């Protein structure tokens, strides 16, 4: 089912509802711009905010959340907040401590989703046990991973009591992740796209421009709509209110199968971010 509006949710395998569409804040530094971006996302209907410890902006995200909730007359329960444990904290005790620290910075009592940020060899299983503990204790609503390839997921699930609810990966028309998507679907793991707009590198793509013209939409809107019709949760980043509003204006049209095939055909397995099988941080 494709989302019909900005508050529509997908149901994760544990029954928790997660919005299909959210705001990402990667590389947005602490300060008024960040606070205003989060606040304006919430006041303009977004119900999902995605951050991470390594972004070093959880304090500002927390402030933006408070201001946004107050202005929109919402409660904490109306929002879905994600953060991620960084590589240097991947260990049983250290992951639990990192979770506490993220909560404190965000000014929240719980997270809706907590992710292992990268599959650091030899470390992610201990971290996953910590996430399972937090989940079983009811301190986080859902747990998952980020940047995990199929073999990482298979390895993790060999020992896991609880399988991940989410796998958040780089995904865009140049990196369609079809095999990974099929694998995740088979195991009931929801795929989520980071960098869905390929950091702006696709905005002058001819194929996408032609499709955008056909629907009188922007290339960004076409890509985000393609995510949703592929059943992928998406979290485009923007700090400008008009762009935050524009990005979410994707619920009044539908791509044809022909359009979707044309966008799928742009795949080159090309990454703008690090390779999960070959990173050293």
Element layout with pairings:
Layout: E1 9-11, E2 17-19, E3 23-24, H1 32-43, E4 48-50, H2 58-72, E5 80-85, H3 92-106, E6 111-116, H4 124-136, E7 140-146, H5 150-159, E8 166-170, H6 178-186, E9 190-194, H7 206-215, H8 219-229, E10 233-234, H9 241-247, H10 257-264
Parallel strand pairs: 3-4, 4-5, 5-6, 6-7, 7-8, 8-9, 9-10
Antiparallel strand pairs: 1-2
Helix pairs in contact: 1-2, 2-3, 3-4, 7-8
Can you walk me through this structure?
- With 281 residues, the chain is α/β, with parallel strands linked by helices.
- It has one domain: NADP-dependent oxidoreductase domain (TIM Barrel, Alpha-Beta Barrel).
- Helices cover 39% and strands 15% of the residues.
- The protein contains ten helices and ten strands.
- The protein has helices at 32-43, 58-72, 92-106, 124-136, 150-159, 178-186, 206-215, 219-229, 241-247, 257-264; strands spanning 9-11, 17-19, 23-24, 48-50, 80-85, 111-116, 140-146, 166-170, 190-194, 233-234.
- An eight-stranded parallel sheet has the order 3-4-5-6-7-8-9-10.
- Helix 1 (32-43) packs parallel to helix 2 (58-72) and helix 7 (206-215) packs across helix 8 (219-229).
- The protein is globular and about 55 Å long.
- It starts with 8 loop residues before the first strand and ends in a 17-residue tail after the last helix.
- 46% of the residues are buried.
- The model has no long low-confidence stretch (mean pLDDT 97).
- GO terms for molecular function: oxidoreductase activity.
- It comes from Ureibacillus massiliensis 4400831 = CIP 108448 = CCUG 49529.
- The record marks 84 as: Lowers pKa of active site Tyr.
- Substrate binds at residue 117.
- Belongs to the aldo/keto reductase family.
């Amino acid at each position: 089912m494709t989302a019909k509006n900005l508050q529509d949710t997908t149901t994760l395998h544990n029954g928790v509802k997660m919005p299909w569409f959210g705001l990402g804040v990667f590389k947005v530094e602490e300060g008024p711009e960040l606070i205003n971006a989060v606040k304006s996302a919430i006041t303009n209907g977004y119900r999902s905010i995605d951050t991470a410890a390594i972004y070093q902006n959880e304090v500002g995200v927390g402030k933006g959340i408070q201001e946004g909730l107050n202005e929109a007359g919402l409660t904490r329960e109306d929002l879905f907040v994600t953060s991620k444990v960084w590589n240097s904290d991947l260990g049983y005790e250290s992951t639990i401590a990192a979770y506490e620290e993220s909560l404190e910075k965000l000014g929240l009592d719980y997270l809706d989703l907590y992710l292992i940020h990268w599959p650091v060899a030899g470390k992610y299983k201990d971290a996953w046990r910590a996430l399972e503990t937090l989940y079983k204790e009811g301190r986080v609503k859902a747990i998952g991973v980020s940047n995990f390839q199929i073999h990482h997921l298979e390895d993790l699930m060999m020992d896991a009591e609880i399988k991940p609810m989410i796998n958040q990966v780089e995904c865009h028309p140049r990196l369609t992740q079809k095999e990974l998507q099929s694998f995740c679907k088979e195991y009931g793991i929801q795929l989520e796209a980071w960098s869905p707009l390929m950091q702006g590198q696709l905005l002058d793509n001819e194929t996408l421009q032609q499709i955008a013209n056909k629907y009188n939409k922007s290339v960004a809107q076409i890509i985000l709509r393609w995510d949703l019709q592929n059943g992928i949760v998406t979290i485009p980043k923007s700090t400008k209110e008009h762009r935050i509003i524009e990005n979410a204006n994707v619920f009044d049209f539908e791509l044809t199968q022909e359009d979707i095939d044309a966008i799928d055909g742009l795949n080159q397995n090309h990454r703008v971010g690090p390779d999960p099988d070959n990173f050293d941080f």
